[in-house]
User: What shape does this take?
Amino acid sequence: MKDIQDLFGSCVFNDAVMQTRLPKDIYKAMKKIISEGSQLSPEVANVVANAMKDWAVEKGATHFTHWFQPMTSITAEKHDSFISPSGNGKVIMEFSGKELVRGEPDASSFPSGGLRATFEARGYTVWDVTSYAFIKDGTLCIPTAFCSYGGEALDKKTPLLRSMEALDKQAMRILRLFGNTTAQRVITTVGPEQEYFLIDKEMYLKRPDLIYTGRTLFGSRPPKGQELEDHYFGSLKPRVSAFMKELDEELWKLGVYAKTKHNEVAPAQHELAPIFSTTNIATDHNQITMEIMKSIADKHGLACLLHEKPFAGINGSGKHNNWSISTDTGINLLEPGETPYENAQFLLFLVAVIKAVDRYQDLLRISAASAGNDHRLGANEAPPAIISIFLGDELTAILEALEAGTEYKGKGKHQMEIGVTTLPSFPKDSTDRNRTSPFAFTGNKFEFRMLGSAFSIAGPNFVLNTVVAEILREFADELEKSKNFKKDMAKLVKDTFHEHKRIVFNGNNYSNEWVTEANNRGLSNLKNTVEALPTFISKKSVELFTHHRVLTKQEIHSRYDILMEGYCKVIHIEALTIVDMVKGEIISACIDYQSELANLLNQKRAAGGHYDISLESHLLDRISKLSAALLKKLNVLESAILETKEERAVLAQATFYRDKVFTAISELRLVVDELETLVARKHWPFPTYAELLYSVI
Ligand code: ADP
Ligand code: MG
Assistant: This one.
C-alpha cells in the first residue's frame, strides 16, 4: 500500500513538492497566490520556474508545454525543450518565470468564431495557478487558460474560472448574511463519472467510421445486445482488468483520484469515477483521464471509444456531473445539516438551485448539446431533452409542507419552521433511486446526468455556476435590505419553491406521459442541438453571462458560431465517411455476392431443372432490390453533400445538415444494415457489431 501512496501524485508539482523545493518565503507567496487566484510577480515566477524545471528534469522530463483546452474536443500542447545554448557548444537546461507564466502559441488554427483576426493570430496562454503542473510523457505540462490578444477567451477554461469567481462572490454574500465570518471563499466541486467503450484495436482499425467519426455509421444488431443485463457490474475480463489497473496507476501518478471502476450496461462498456475535487481541477483531470484512457488502451491492443453513441441499438455513453457548493472551510452547502441554522442555509441554497435550473433550463440544455449527444438525449437510455429536477419524495414533501405551512407528515411529525426547527432526517439512499432524471439531488450534491461522454465538463459547469450565481445575487440583493432576516429568508424559501416547483419531477423521465406533463407545465423541450443553440445568443443569456463577467457578448456569439460550425463539420465528416465506405467497399461486396449467386443459379438451371433454386433466387432478388435502394439513397446523400456548398447563414446551414444530410445518412444506413444481414460474411468488408462488441475476450 505504501507503494500507491508514493506513486500518487508522483508526477505532479503539488503542494508537498512546492513545500520541499521552494524557499519558505516563495512557498508562502505561492500559497497566497493560489488561494487568491492572483498573478505571480516576476521574482516569484522565476524561482518557481527554476524549481519546477529541476524537479521535472530529475524525473526525466526534457520539454515543457502550456497545456490548454481550446474550443476543439481535445487539449492542446506545443512542446518546447528546456535546452538553451551555453556558448561552448553545450547546452544548459533552462526555464524562466516568463515561460512559466505566459505562452504565445501561434494559435491561428484554433477555432475562434471570428474573435481573432488573422493579423493578430497569436493568442496567449496564462498559467492557472490553482491547477498544479504535471509531467506527462517526458513533458512538463503547465495548465493554462487561452485568450486572444484582446483578452477574449478562446478556450473552455477561462469562462469556467470566471464563473467560479462569480459564484464565490454571490455565495459569500449569502454566507455573511447567515453570520458566517470564517469562510473566505466558496468553491464548486465536481466528481465526473466517465463512461467509455473498449474494443479490440484490430477490429477498430478495420472500421474507418470509428476512426474518422468515433461511431459506427452502420451495423445490424448483434444476436445478443444488453437485454440480459449480464454486463452491468459483471466481473472484468482479464484484458480489461489489466487496462484498468494500468489506467488507475497512470492517473494516480498524475494526482487524479481515480476511485471506482466497473462494467456498464452495454457489452464492452465501462465506467470510471474519480473522487470529486474543485471544479477546474476536476475539469483538467477529466481531460487527462480521457486522454490517458486512449493511450493506455492503445498499449493494451485496445481502442477506447469516448463517443456518445458508438453503436446504435445499445446504450451510449454519458458523463454524470456530480456537483456541489462548498466553503474553503470544508462545509458542503448542499448538505442538510444538524442545526436549524445550517438547515435554513441548506434550504436557501437548495431553492436557489431549483430556481436557477427552472429559469435557465435552456442554457443547461445547450450545455449538454452536441451532434454526438443528440443520439442519446430523449432516446430512453439517457435523460430526455427536457430538464427537470429530482428531489426525492421526502425532500419534496418537506418543501411542500413548508410551502403550505402545514405539518410535515414524515418522520419528524412536527410543523417545521425554517431557521427554527431542524430538518427531519431523511436517509440519503432514498434520494437516489431515480436514474432517469437529468438533474437529481443525491443527498448532498446534484447529479447533472445529461452530459455526453466526450464532453469537456467545463461547458456545463460554467453554465451551472453562473445560473446559480445569478439567483444567489438576487437573493442577496433582497436579503441584505431585510430588517428581519430570519422571517424574510424563510418567506424567500417558501415563495421560491412555490414559484419554481414545476421543475421538480420525481417520476419516470422516460415515459411518454412525462413529455405531455412537462409540456403542460410549460417546461422547454429542445430536442436537438440545432433547436437548442439559438437560445445561447438570446437577450436573457447575454444579460446573464455579461452581468457576471463570464462571457462578453462577442464571446457568446463566437462560441455560438463555433458550436454550430462544429455540429455541421461532424455531420459532414460522417457523410463523407459513409459515402466512402459504401462506394469503396460495400457496393463491391454486394456485386461479388450477387455474381456468385447468379453463377450458381445459371449452373443449376443449366443442369436442367433438377435443383431447387428458391434460396438463391430469393436472395438475389432481395439483394438486387436493396442494391438499387442503396444507389438511390447514396445519390440523395451525395447531392445533399453538394448542396452544403451553398452560402447559408450559420443556423440555416446547421438546420440543413440536421434535416437533409443527417437524415440521408440515417436512411442510407437502414439499407446497409439490411444488406449486412444478407451478404455472405466472407464478402462483407467490415467487422460486424457482434465482432466489435465481443472482440475483447
Ligand atoms: P453513482 O454511480 O451512484 O452516481 P458514484 O459513486 O459512481 O455514484 O459517483 C458519485 C460521484 O459523486 C463521485 O465522483 C463522488 O466523488 C462525487 N461526489 C460526492 N460528493 C460530492 C460533492 N460534494 N461534490 C461533488 N461531487 C461529489
Ligand atoms: Mg451517477
In short: The chain has three domains: 4-155, 163-551, 566-693. The chain is about 50% helix and 15% strand. Residues 251 and 289 are 7 Å apart (CA to CA). The chain has a mean pLDDT of 92.
